[in-house]
## 1
Amino acid sequence: RKEVEQDPGPFNVPEGATVAFNCTYSNSASQSFFWYRQDCRKEPKLLMSVYSSGNEDGRFTAQLNRASQYISLLIRDSKLSDSATYLCVVRVRGKSTFGDGTTLTVKP
Amino acid sequence: SQTIHQWPATLVQPVGSPLSLECTVEGTSNPNLYWYRQAAGRGLQLLFYSVGIGQISSEVPQNLSASRPQDRQFILSSKKLLLSDSGFYLCAWSVPGALYNEQFFGPGTRLTVL
């Protein structure tokens, strides 16, 4: 079993749709959690950190469930520019483990 | 503000040739530095990390090595490249002394070994 597993995707949604990604992790000692966005052939860029209380940044909402060991990312009112691969990242004692990513394509 | 540079941006090398990729960070002191490799359609694999000059930890045994000759310089090397070394190499930094913080990535080097 992989340490970090993401929905395989791809997700193809129309503009304006709401889409949710899930990510599960196996190490209960995991300390911090992040979502990154990666455009084709580019470096990953930090989208948001994920806190136990949940956090929101505009159209993006991240949630953490430590008991079930999963994190989620919700994107509301999808834009064409949201098309990218979304990477789930879990950190334990300074080391990050990345999921393989979920690809989102938003269509007109 | 902090910036991170990598070069070259792309590289095509024959099997058995040497490799040297460079990463430098500006705007911060004593950052934690990381080398990752990403295969096509996959997540990132941590290769090396460093918490200070001359301090290198290797995560995956392979024919690659890393060095940190200066505080904000991180170099990835190989004496003889393999076909399996092809991939997207990413350097990243994080705030020194903070193990839980986010990482920031450089633009990457796309390596093709023929």
Note: Chain B has a mean pLDDT of 92.
## 2
Amino acid sequence: QKEVEQNSGPLSVPEGAIASLNCTYSDRGSQSFFWYRQYSGKSPELIMFIYSNGDKEDGRFTAQLNKASQYVSLLIRDSQPSDSATYLCAVNRQNTGNQFYFGTGTSLTVIP
Amino acid sequence: NAGVMQNPRHLVRRRGQEARLRCSPMKGHSHVYWYRQLPEEGLKFMVYLQKENIIDESGMPKERFSAEFPKEGPSILRIQQVVRGDSAAYFCASSPDLSRPNEQFFGPGTRLTVL
């Protein structure tokens, strides 16, 4: 079983719609959860992080964490073509020395 | 405030040569991480370093790969006797000191091609 699993997609949504990206993780000891955006050929860019159960909102982005279900998601409201990228879910377990475990990413395309 | 810097951005080596990848963390960051990204795959953790110390190298291949973060200068990932399977993008990330250890900021990466 992989540490972090994501649906590779591709996920396509029309401009203005809500994009929903999902991620599950295997280790209940995981403590911190991150979403990165990666454009093709570029480096990952931190979008959001969440530590506690519930929702965390930042502009058009909302991260949701459910530790009981070992599930974290990212919602993108009012999707724009510039949001088209691969979204990486990352999980940190501090007892492993700050090592991040990344999913393989979900490719999102926002159609104008 | 400059971000994480990596050089070179592109590196071409022939099989059997050595590759040296450099990473300068963001100002004020003392934690450095190296990741490898193969085509169509996710980022794989390789090593975590602080100044003059390797904290976690559980993701490093046992042979040919080494990393250091000296007191002065950038962190270096060294790959000896490269093989075609080493072709990948290598990303360095850094994070602040202990007050916020978990937010990792990535450099632009070094794309290594082994001929």
Note: DSSP finds no helices and eleven strands in chain A.
